[in-house]
Specification:
single chain; 2 domains; 79% helix; elongated
């Protein structure tokens, strides 16, 4: 349908006046859904391990392990976070909001 001159011609070709070399509306729609299905499955298969890893990292046991390393300093060492600047920014935000 992308080769039609406009939406009216595309709708007419799809629904009312089939042309040689173009699928009818229902067949084209079914083919499009069939093309999308494997892409959707591949996307879900790719996202699942990342979500699982993230979920595992949020488990209370894992958080406790991180805290056991050295409290906030351990978080800073592991994540590269500058805790004092984060605390200062939060304090500033709270003060200006009140």
């Amino acid at each position: 349908m992308k080769f039609m001159s406009g939406p009216e011609q595309a709708a007419e070709t799809m629904l009312f006046k089939p042309r040689n070399g173009y699928l009818t509306g229902d067949t084209g729609f079914i083919n499009a859904l069939n093309d999308i299905r494997p892409h959707q499955a591949a996307l879900m298969a790719a996202v699942q391990p990342a979500l699982s890893d993230m979920s595992d990292g949020l488990a209370p046991v894992e958080i406790e392990k991180t805290r056991a390393v050295a409290g906030l300093a351990g978080l800073r060492a592991i994540n590269g976070v500058n805790i004092p600047s984060v605390v200062t920014a939060v304090q500033h935000t709270v003060k200006t909001a009140c």
